[in-house]
């Protein structure tokens, strides 16, 4: 601990630490920094609060937690040898020597104890180890909260309040000498249960049924229910204090007796070494990289298709937020995936800032302006953007379709999907992958066991969820990593290793050679289809997606030309000649005659009818066409009437009228108030600029080294001020100050004292009241006194400050320099 005198409190133990050790504590428990403690005493107090201790315990690995649990049931304070014995056993059970386990525990215990000390959960020298009181209360046994070790209360705790007569009866039944002192009686009974030889002799006389009762209680829970007339075996155990009453119907196996039956072990199976994650398959690393790259390309295509699907405005947002089940099914069908996988792609695009709500009155989801920038990136850069967003996201698509704590359904893009542990689990799972040789796939169950060893206590989660949230997050991570191309064939890819270790630039460079080069051509066929034998360049793909409909996807994409798709291109401002030129320029095969006829036929009829706003009207130079529309029964709902030989009026809005006539087989065009044809640009709807959703952190962020250094200096300075010793000036007329109160001196004495301190370079203790009326005590080293102000180095704040003299309540000299 760095001192010759053993610390008496946690504050003294922390005060004896070096700056690096204090910084390590604040790094491991960043919640202690909010706000920065004034001094070491406040730091120790905050480190012992329930919320902070619970958070610290949740971040311990299995063996460090087992060490803390053993200290919770050990005497307080406990020597190191006692703690070691609780973890290894006393070695006297011939049937279970556990030599290898004992050696592993002996080797691992110093490291676990160092972790607990570093996190201020344990303090004291090895001969007097103390678990902080709050941790002992959390881990110690009680009827309401059984100990994780399965041990019950001690004999002294279980017999508190027991009548002296009952204690005498127990002593007599066990053959111990009678004593009228309850304390001596409890000590004698405890000594019996901790004496291996005498305890063995007592149990040798027990009925076989009584030993069976003990076997059921020995590893916990140690509590059992009894009837008013217990069976003979239970009565035998109760008469001899091996079962002590907790209430009229409940008994408990005392801790000392249970430890004898366990051969001194606090845990059935200590776990000092993390479980090994074995490999179940070894594959060619290059094949793994190629498979992952292929899936990465599929991921990019899927996200692009989702953006196109919602390009002109996506689905409406539910009142409670998120997508409806119907809209999720519709998206899944369009993407040709299952609903859970569709939820993953939607959440990924949302988390990467590519999708958001448009904020309109009729609020809908739509691509963001950032999606256009993302589409302009190279394929490898688009992938690293998605992968980085996935690694940091706290939104958890795997929860979609489940229920929250109130039984409400969890929807995609809805609230309540954030789980702060998700980024940590993802990175830890991938780190375990990275520890294996390239091309090696780990065994899933062993990986889950390793994660449970590293974090045996779960964090806060809705009650409706499974107790093992981290395992569920890990399983979702395995599936999502394969979908995204982080892994290939179950093993971590080289590009993912680079992303984790070296950053996005290196990962993109590793991925680029594995992705197919975009093509500048298609193959037109006589059946009105076009085949894209690979990914297309962005301008070609955008134009072709307007001119034709995707019929099938895979290694090659098949597009089909239809009258509707050609009309869509004409609506977007293309002329028939433009479409003929486009196809001729980008086809490696001659343009089929049926396709040319299709384009010319649709173009000839396109715009023959004109739709404008009256409510809406239809005008056409050919009266016969208008007569045909009026005679068609399908137009009844439009409520058309003739205004002129070439004009029909409708009570429907122009958009509805336009779609209705197209459904009837016509090719109308919308026109402006000036009579010009309106050009409809595909994909014109974008949200206002949006930032991606901010991940919900798991507790306070880990501070950087600069903040840690400043915090440690401030705590040291505050501690120097708080522990500074005043010089004894009791002979003075106005210097006597009760302990803890502000110093009080006259203005003249205050001025004289700070002037003298400025000349001699000494340090003084002052009381100060700020402009808000808040009083504080400070240790300062005056530098200059003039104009009613004193400029001084404030040890409490660790900076130079200026104080008005009229706000200083008093000043006192220190017995020694307070600079520490």
Q: Report the major sheet.
A: 5 strands, mixed
Total number of helical segments? 33
Given the helix and strand composition, which structural class is it?
A: alpha+beta
Strand content: 5-15%
Q: Given the C-alpha coordinates, what overall shape results?
A: extended
Our Rg estimate from Cα atoms comes to 39 Å
Low-confidence stretches: 459-467, 729-739
Mean pLDDT: 86
Number of strands: 25
State the share of residues found in helices, binned by percent.
Answer: 40-55%
Report how far apart the termini are.
18 Å
* Largest sheet: spatial strand order: 18-19-17-16-20
Question: Short description, anyone?
Answer:
The protein has 820 residues and is α+β, with helices and mostly antiparallel strands. Mean pLDDT is 86; it is low at 459-467 and 729-739.
What labels describe this entry?
single chain, 820 residues, alpha+beta, five-stranded mixed beta sheet, five-stranded antiparallel beta sheet, 33 helices, 44% helix, extended
List the helices and strands and how they pair.
Layout: H1 10-15, H2 19-28, H3 40-47, H4 50-58, H5 62-73, H6 80-88, H7 99-118, E1 122-123, E2 130-131, H8 133-139, H9 155-158, H10 164-173, H11 182-194, H12 196-204, H13 208-217, E3 223-225, H14 232-239, E4 244-245, E5 250-252, H15 255-261, E6 279-282, H16 285-309, H17 325-335, H18 339-351, E7 355-357, E8 365-367, H19 369-375, H20 379-392, H21 422-434, E9 440-442, H22 444-454, H23 469-484, E10 487-488, E11 491-492, H24 494-501, H25 504-511, E12 523-525, E13 529-532, H26 538-547, E14 549-552, E15 557-560, H27 563-571, H28 576-586, H29 593-605, E16 610-612, E17 616-619, H30 623-631, E18 641-644, E19 647-650, H31 654-663, E20 669-670, H32 705-723, H33 747-760, E21 764-769, E22 775-786, E23 789-794, E24 799-804, E25 808-813
Parallel strand pairs: 16-20
Antiparallel strand pairs: 1-2, 3-5, 4-5, 6-9, 7-8, 10-11, 12-13, 13-15, 14-15, 16-17, 17-19, 18-19, 21-22, 21-25, 22-23, 23-24
Helix pairs in contact: 2-32, 5-7, 5-8, 10-11, 13-14, 16-18, 17-18, 20-25, 21-23, 22-23, 24-25, 27-29
